[in-house]
Amino acid sequence: MTDHTITDNVLPEHDSPESAGSPYQVVARRYRPQGFSELVGQSHVAQALTNAIQTGRIGHAYLFTGARGVGKTSSARIFAKALNCEHGPTVTPCNECEICQSVSTGEDVDVIEIDGASNRGIDEIRQLRQNASVKPSRARFKIHIIDEVHMLTREAFNALLKTLEEPPTHVKFIFCTTEPSKIPITILSRCQRFDFAGIDPLSISRRLAEIADKEGVTAEEGVFETLARRASGSMRDAQSLLEQLLSFAPKHIAQTDVHGMLGTADDQRLFRIVHSVLNENPAEIFTELDAASQEGVDFGVFVEQLMGLFRDLMVSAGGGDKNLLMYSSPSRYEDVKKLARDLELPRILASLQILDQTYTKMRYSTQGRILLELALGRICQLPQLKSIATLLDQIRSGSLVIPASPPSPAASVNPASANPVPINPVPAASQVPAFRSAPPQKKTSELNHVPEKITPEPLPPASVMELSEAELPRIWSEMANKLPVMAASQATMAKAFRLEPPSTVIAVFPSDQSFAKSYCENEAAKIQTKLRDLTGTTVQLRFETIEVKSEEKPAPPVKNSMSGPVQKMRMLAEMSDHPLIQKAAELFGANLSDIKSDKR
Description:
Rossmann fold; Helicase, Ruva Protein, domain 3; 4 domains; 5-stranded parallel sheet; 3-stranded mixed sheet; 24 helices; 12 strands
């Protein structure tokens, strides 16, 4: 078993477009990876597939996921060539045999590439299943590569399940998608999944430099880094941008060519704007934006560039090193570090939020320049917001110093009166600090004449009833009318009343009204309060019962002055809140709907 080393920077020899005499192919196709060693930024995938081939652990279904242009379909073709090469299975397909060449051009009869977006129905999947049962014509395996597989319908996925789980031994499936979340879990569980990461800008810029060298084109320093950052991790996007630049500047590529084509601003302008923000100089910012407008800069792209620069400032302010920079050149790390230290992290975070909101608004507005000028103007004012935060902290700590009130004309001759007065000096006998976190003094302030809060004494009742044994029935009736419905109905069951000096009220209940007596005992505190309000005297309560002989009829209860329907409604509401009623309702799942009185 041979050893295989994977590298990310090996570019194979390719014929120039003029030498072959064939129709012109774009850069992205002409420099497409032809082996695992040519995959850029996907060493983990290349290593896993290489080990699978070397150890013979080749699965029957693979799922390649990731963003656009990161090498999913190219990896599928390389894997197909590695399995079917005449010298294989091998981790280094020869790219010279007829099978390798036909797979590279997408014309091999045994490696079938399907576009999931245009072959998404159940009929196409049924045809695929029928073809899968047929053995390959000349290769070892019949390989089905389905690009954008998430576009298949639910019925098509269901039709594929059985074949995908137990395919013939000569069939392999390779699925590619940018949206794995749209694939049913039943499909995901039957595949070996490989996630393709976004390619870092440094690797992209190195590959672009190699391609430009093969094409015989020179470029200024920083051109390929700018293209790599603009591609946002996609190698195909970066190569397409390079293709466009090769048409624009076929011999030498300058930075001005890149910014003119992309509508971007150069790094110097971005840093000048951030310096103007640091110096709180909006005039310089507006001048820079006007110059950018005259050069054809797209302000939507300009906001993205500013967000990228502030992102790098945020990382630097948080302690990150130059390896974490994504939108700034590593050669400018010291400038980024100094700006981050001067701006400070809170101001950088606030600036990022403003720029993010501006970018969202610009998508629905035709006034991009005005919105950007507004955003940068607000960012220039952020230090004042910081002063407000400091002011609040000083108020909380009690260390705030404010100038004294303007002196009167008579006192204007004294210059000392204009000196700042601390807000919390040692208070004089007649002064109280105006700002203090401690509770206010009880003494009335002579500075602002705010009276202290005084708890009022309870007012006497409007009419006091004489507490006597003769008046007890009438007092008890008035008291019952002021109680809640349930307590009032039970209090009216008392038969007689006595008064024991000096102020003990005895309520007597018939022996068959023990519930009413117990209820009133529980509500004794409320009854005492109501009696005190009526008589102006704090009374003591005692409840007694009396035996009722069969030939005797109990004295009629004290009549409640409430009308029948109103009293019944109030009693119903009060009874519903009683603990016993609530417990019964909980046990039996019932609701209190009516109250019937016993008229025996």
